[in-house]
Amino acid sequence: MPYNNISVIGLGYIGLPTAAMLASKAKKVIGVDVNQKTVDTINAGNIHIVEPDLDVIVKEAVLQGYLRAVTTSEPADAFLIAVPTPFKSVKKKGLIPQPDLSYIEAAAKSVARVLKKGDLVILESTSPVGTTEQMASWLADARPDLTFPQINGESSDIRVAYCPERVLPGHVVRELTENDRVIGGMTHKCSAAAADLYKIFVNGKCIVTNARTAEMAKLTENASRDVNIAFANELSIICDNLSIDVWELISLTNLHPRVNILQPGPGVGGHCIAVDPWFIVSASPEDSKLIKKSREINDSKPDWVVSKVKLAIKRYLGRNNSVKPQDLKVACYGLAFKADINDLRESPAVSIAKKIIEINRGQTLLVEPNILEIPKELSGGKLVNFSEALSLADIHLLLVDHYSFKSQRPSFGEIIDTRGIWNSNSDIV
Ligand code: SAJ
Predict the structure, then answer these.
(1) Residues sharing a CB contact under 8 Å with residue 13, sequence separation 6 or more, in sequence order
(2) 218 counts as catalytic
(3) Fewer CB within 10 Å, N or C, the chain?
(4) Closest ligand 1 atom, residue 169 Cα
(5) What is the pTM of this model?
(6) Residues 163, 190, 272, 332: which is the catalytic one?
């Protein structure tokens, strides 16, 4: 199947780069997004997200007429759905978050209107096991005139597959082409059709399985990282109790050829690792003990960091009788959810900074070199640059290991380093 007209539904962090890569291979791509502003931005050859090298590819694709954005679905040969799958907010503490598939349902219904015999529909959104089958049944309900693989198997009019993205924010353009892809068709022909589509821009291997295994593979990748980070976070608390430098400890243990521990931090942020493991837990609550515990360990790390700051404040004021609590300056270094990006969504650093602003009677200084304005929820703090914070603050709280923070460590005051870049055993670059 040549796939000359491809539609990508959802032009966010995954959909837009994928649309741009397809368009860069001289395919006519129609990007669909419900947000008119996003659509206008892309049609003007610009991008609404920060991702290295993507701006140039999108501009070129729009200028050459290969990429066009719209707000409602149009006919195409293949449809790639890359919309968000958040979880529903939990009303009571202790309840397991449940996935919210409403964006996929809306996307499926909008695609169903323009489907024709021979089309391929791929779900890319990170989803609980069984979502591809659910999506196929939404499509079938909306289009009784077409046949689908869940009933008609290999002879169906429409091919349906699940293919998760695995790209790392900040490296999306490279990883989209280089990473291997797991392709889970609802039938063999569905898998083959989807593999043909990805081969347009993927240089990595396209490995075929069934839809449920592909869904679980994506959740497992992120849950594996979450569990490993939880182990590192648990170690960091134990090491703090025992006066051991956890970063030195991990670097030493990782010298063992079969040990590879990840890094502790102030908690796990972003919209993937902190969310996806819940899709496994909610499907199998009794049997996901380790995955659930890891989520809880990582989610509780920000509170532990705040308790360390409270202790540091007490210590500092105890040592410096002349400093009044209202004169104390606490600096939070970094607000993004991880190093060298400007994305503050679901960032543990933001939730910690917010609590520091609440508990600190003096001024809270916020350092985030990748943003120009602080979010509303942190309006009680003051955005300053790195050197101002180093020279003004009494308490220095390192939350994100941005490259620029590695050049200098504070020379006075209390230091709480949640990323291990200022601890005495780390090198200053
Ligand atoms: N983190 C640590 N310690 C570590 C590594 C990460 O505390 O050793 C924290 C980060 O600071 C951040 C969070 O974890 O707050 C998540 O960061 P990340 O770099 O682990 O992952 P994401 O969310 O940027 O991207 C992940 C990736 N998944 C895996 O590496 C298994 C990416 O490949 C996925 O495509 C992406 O989730 C996704 O979209 O699901």
Answers:
(1) 49, 51, 169, 172
(2) yes
(3) C
(4) 24
(5) 0.94
(6) 272
